[in-house]
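Sequence in, structure out. Go.
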Amino acid sequence: MNTLSKYLLSTLLLCCVASSLSAVTVRTRAIKNKALFGITFPDDTKEYYGKEAAIHSISKQEYITSGYRVVEINIVTAGNGLLRIYHSRALRLGELQAAMADGADAAGVPSAIQRSPVPPGVQQMADRASAVAEAMTSDTVMKEYPLATHARTIEYRVQTRSELLDLFDQLQKHWLKEPAYYEGGQIVDENEATSKKMEPRSLGGTRFIVK
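Output:
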């Protein structure tokens, strides 16, 4: 392999690493009102602003439905509002049956029942969910009016699991005010900081940009 090829390969690897580490961009002091924080999604119609002092909890969970595996962030604030940001995908072959077997095992149901095939109706629901998932945009929230209006719930759907987990990680660090190195008002790696003094992160004034 010649020098040029090695250089191109190393550049490509660096780009891949940078891409994997930058699912969410954090802009410190991007909002003039320091009491507020914002989350921006890759669409002109998807943006959220909240009051840091109004947050009661930030949680992350993963679960499956009859047709989907879901990972979601829930931010509970003062009042009746709930912010839900999630990533979902259609269940893969055997996932639902495996989950049913785990549940049966936990409940002490005999193993013969655990080995039972997925009921046809449930499998059909999973198949339909898979078809819908392929047909729709991956960052589109699905709601069925008037069956499920999701009143008082603000929902966003992100394209990848890594984006969601990265967003939760950043939100958690800022809400818990974990210390970081700053340069020019922005968070930087330790090797980029001219000062070794760490300062606490803060949700207030920060914008989180999901790519």
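Check: Residues 22-210 form one domain. The chain has a mean pLDDT of 79.
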